[in-house]
């Protein structure tokens, strides 16, 4: 009996040690990446980045204004498309479909969509929104990002609405409130913190995507707000500048990567704070 106990304790210590070392190794690599990114990004940051558009190598008046504006337009448009669609679909699953075969089928499809490679989504949108019109455009880029957002928001909304006690719905219905009012004024109110967190995390998820934009909005070296034409984005600009042989473009690439990392980090922190607030 004592031998068996000693063996279990030994195995537990070995597994605990391996797990701890793995966690430390992962944190070290993450810290290394963040340090390199911050070191090079902060060094490359200056006011020109926010004032000027991209220019040929060697020009001092060169910046990222075109990419910052383009990225904001793509993400905001994707949010306007993806959030209502994800919310409505999640509401259907939780409040109407519940455990029906069709609702479970949608849940399975959304789970698959969440793990689908982003380049596949980009190729799909290219086939339906870029190839027919014959040129890259901002709308296609936003649609590709929205398709990536919808499954995240759908599943988050479904899960959060399911956590609202059924007794609240029954109490509101007993007072004579129609179902849509019960959903809008009772169920949404009880789940709003979790839903907002899901939306923020989905925005952070799509903000760093490059592959789907290469197939859809592509990029633009000039300042443009025309969504019917190719439009610049921070992610594709990072790819183009970082792989160029010019030192000043590489510095701009570092600055763009640092700005994007700050945005994603800030969005995640806000999401975590909301979750923490909800638990209190």
Describe the structure.
The chain is mainly α and 280 residues long. It has helices spanning 2-44, 48-51, 65-97, 101-114, 118-130, 138-162, 166-174, 179-207, 211-215, 234-242, 247-279.
Along the chain, the helix and strand elements come as: HHHHHHHHHHH
Number of helices: 11
Question: Which whole number gives the mean pLDDT?
Answer: 90
- What percentage of the residues does DSSP assign to strands (E)? under 5%
Rg over CA atoms, rounded to whole Å, is 23 Å
Shape: globular
For this entry, what is the oligomeric state of its chains? single chain
Are there runs of 5+ residues with pLDDT below 50, and where?
none
Distance between the termini: 45 Å
Total strand count, please? Answer: 0
Spell out the key features of this protein.
single chain, 280 residues, mainly alpha, 78% helix
